């Protein structure tokens, strides 16, 4: 009785405060909320039928959504097996990943968590490969070093403000200023 009262909503606590028998409290709560199964079940069944692995950006998002639906179905008395979870995931791979789907099937996973663990590892490895590729894309030329010596370098103090090059620059600047 203490456990039930501790975990129910505050509004329900006050409503059922006078009930002293735990079995009676449980039956009252069950009677009050049993209709929710009728409301939740059709939506959960529809969500399960619409759920596709390919519609999610990450494996974690898919896994979280699937388990939310599975929890609702179990609450409504539906039996969900490991084979059902595996098959749902396999059948909803994107068409471009059919070879990958077949490889996962051939691996022979018997537990859904094993498949998801393998998919999470593959996703993480793909992210690392993409990061490495973005850091060093194919056929990219290495950037020149900052301290590289240019072939036009004439030495210290030459070509800046002295000599013929400086006079040409002064003449050019002077002709621009006159216009």
From TrEMBL:
Annotated spans, Disordered: 151-179
Lineage: Eukaryota, Viridiplantae, Streptophyta, Embryophyta, Tracheophyta
Domain of life: Eukaryota
Protein's organism: Cephalotus follicularis (Albany pitcher plant)
Compositional bias (Polar residues): 169-179
Protein name: UBN2 domain-containing protein
């Amino acid at each position: 009785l203490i456990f039930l009262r501790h975990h129910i909503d505050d509004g329900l606590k006050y409503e059922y405060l006078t009930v002293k028998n735990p079995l009676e409290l449980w039956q009252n709560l069950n009677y009050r909320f049993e209709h929710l199964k009728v409301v939740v079940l059709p939506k959960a069944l529809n969500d399960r039928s619409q759920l596709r692995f390919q519609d999610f950006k990450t494996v974690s998002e898919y896994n979280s959504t699937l388990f939310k639906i599975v929890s609702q179905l179990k609450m409504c008395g539906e039996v969900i097996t490991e084979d059902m979870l595996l098959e749902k995931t396999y059948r909803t791979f994107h068409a471009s990943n059919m070879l990958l789907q077949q490889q996962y099937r051939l691996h022979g996973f018997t537990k859904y968590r094993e498949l998801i663990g393998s998919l999470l590892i593959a996703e993480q490895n793909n992210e690392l490969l993409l990061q490495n590729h973005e850091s060093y894309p194919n056929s990219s030329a290495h950037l020149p070093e900052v301290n590289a010596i240019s072939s036009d370098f004439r030495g210290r103090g030459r070509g800046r403000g002295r000599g013929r090059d400086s006079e040409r620059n002064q003449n050019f600047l002077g002709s621009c200023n006159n216009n």
